């Protein structure tokens, strides 16, 4: 095992034992200090981010990746507010549930406990460093983080900020540790760090997820890749369509819950598509259409024919694919063929169509008459998230405090022995 990982892993294990037994008030105090320290160190953090942005531009990072990498004063303030919001969330650690008394008098209860040491591998978004640190701290877990080399200066400044906050609150500075080596081999080292890391969350593209699945000996939770759909039904309220579609695509196009594919019922396509295309064009969105949509929009300057790969692409940019479908059944079939299981939405006032869509679409989040951008921990009341899980096991959708716990059985007896 790599020496840095081994040393930090052992320290994280010790810290995790302390964190698992902290009371809620102590954890909340630490979070408050961390939020204050973020704002106090704003010039240092933004200066470090400037270095990463300069390096990113020099290395030809795309606009989408640069947007993910960028920290500004308002974004930093929002990050600090997210930490504060976690203070106001219920602490799941110690919660007892599913209690029962056996016929022999044994009292059986499940109790929520931290997972232990959570490892997260992520790429361009330095805000993840704070989000994960805060959620892990509140849920009693230690964290080992490995960000991408493109955000190394930002992550170092943010990690130091968290550690200064922990120290001021009397917590171990090893509550959160950053792997500072940018060697890509560290990813495999983390994935195989059984006995040191208890769970790994890879946050990145499809290649990282596949690599994790193929190489991990540590339990892995995958997610965060979104080929997200909005379906406009024949019974849609036309006044809702353009605002929802524009918000889903444009509000922040570089994130995983942004719209990628718009599906429109053929009965309303000629009325809806020109309005949608005009609105998207105002935001410089490139539109890629399959033949039936192309027939309606062929004279629109922002439109081009869709390629065979466009309906399987997470664009992470101002690009959207459009397809005309015969009915809700075809929309659902298309989603099953092309979705990554992240977020899908229906715009409709017809109860039967809505319920069919909600019941049959098996993505982590299904939206009705609202934007896909709401599949987010902060927006759904979790304060923040460590990831958006698209797998069927343990946790789905935004992973907040409760999703960072497991449980143990507590069995209370009065001297019973098994016959």
Question: What features would you describe in this structure?
Answer:
It is a single chain. With 419 residues, this protein is α/β, with parallel strands linked by helices. The protein has two domains: 3-221 and 399-412, Aldehyde Dehydrogenase, Chain A, domain 1 (3-Layer(aba) Sandwich), CATH 3.40.605.10; 228-374, Aldehyde Dehydrogenase, Chain A, domain 2. Helix content is 42%, strand content 19%. The protein contains 14 helices and 16 strands. The strands form four sheets. The chain has a seven-stranded parallel β-sheet, sandwiched between helices. Strands 5-4-3-6 form a four-stranded parallel β-sheet, with helices on both faces. A hairpin with a 7-residue loop joins β14 and β15 (397-398). α2 (24-40) crosses α7, α6 (127-138) runs parallel beside α7 (152-168) and α10 packs across α11 (266-282). The longest helix has 17 residues, at 3-19. It is globular and about 75 Å long. The model has no long low-confidence stretch (mean pLDDT 94).
